[in-house]
Amino acid sequence: MPNKILETNNAISATKKGTADKSTVNKDEMKNSPLHKFFVSALKDIYYAENAILEALEKMQEAATTEELKDAFEDHHLQTQKHVKRLEKVFKLIDEKPEKKECKAIQGIIEEGEEAIRSTEDGSATRDVALIIAAQKVEHYEIATYGGLAQLAITMGHNKAADLLERTLQEEEDTDSHLTDIAEISINFDAEQED
Which InterPro entries does the protein's record reference (predicted)? Predict the structure, then answer.
C-alpha cells in the first residue's frame, strides 16, 4: 500500500510540474466553465460531509468499547475540524464562498454506522469491529473524494488548493491505516471470542 501512495504522490508532483500557468486564462471564463462548477459543487459536497462526520464521530466515540478506539475517534474528530478549516481555505483560494451541499452518500454511510451501533451489544468487541468498519467506509469515501479533487485542482492550475487537498488526503489514508491496525492487533480477535 505505501508504494501505491508513493506512486500517486509522484504522479501528482509530475503533473504539477507539467501544468501550464493558468493565470493567463480569464478568471470569469474559468468560473463559468463546467469543470469549475463541478469542482465547486464537489467541494460543497465534501464540506457538508466533513461537518456531518464531526457529529457522527462524537456518537461513535461514545459508543466505542475500548479506550484505544475511543482515542482514535477523538483524534479523528480533532483532525476533521482541521479538514473543515482547510476546505474553507480552498474555497477562499478559488474565490468561492464556503457552502454546504447535501451529501446523500455520507448520510447513507453515517446511517449504516448508526445501525451498527443499534445492532451490536453495548460494551462488546463486536461493536468496536462494526464501528471500525463503519469508520473505514467514511474514510474510503473521503479518500476517493479528496484524491479526485486534488487532481482536478492541479488540472485547473489551483496548485495551492491542490496542496491543501493532498494534505487532507494523506491524513485520511493515515487514519484508515490506523483503524486497520487497531482491528488487526486485538479487536477482531477479541470479538471472535465473544459468545
Answer: DUF892_YciF-like, Ferritin-like, Ferritin-like_SF, YciF
Q: Is the dihedral of CA 166, 169, 173, 175 positive or negative?
A: positive
Distance CA 68, CA 76 (A): 12
Contact present, 67 and 51 (Cβ < 8 Å): no
Tell me the average pLDDT across 92-113.
96
Q: How far is residue 124 from each of residues 62, 64, 65, 121, 130, measured CA to CA in Å?
A: 13, 9, 6, 6, 10
Grid cell, residue 39, equals 469542482
pTM over 0.90: no
Residue 180 is placed in which grid cell?
486497520
171/117 Cα distance (integer angstroms)? 25
Cα gap 134→121, rounded to integer Å: 16
Cell 473543515: give the residue. Answer: 84
Q: Crossing angle, helix 104-118 and helix 125-155, to 10 degrees?
A: 170
C-alpha cell at 54: 464531526
Distance CA 32, CA 36 (A): 7
* Residues 164-184: tens digit of each pLDDT: 999 999 999 999 999 999 999
The gap from C-alpha 5 to its chain's centroid, in whole angstroms, comes to 15
What spatial distance separates the first Cα and last Cα of the chain, rounded to whole Å?
34
Domains and CATH numbers, the chain: 29-193 (1.20.1260.10)
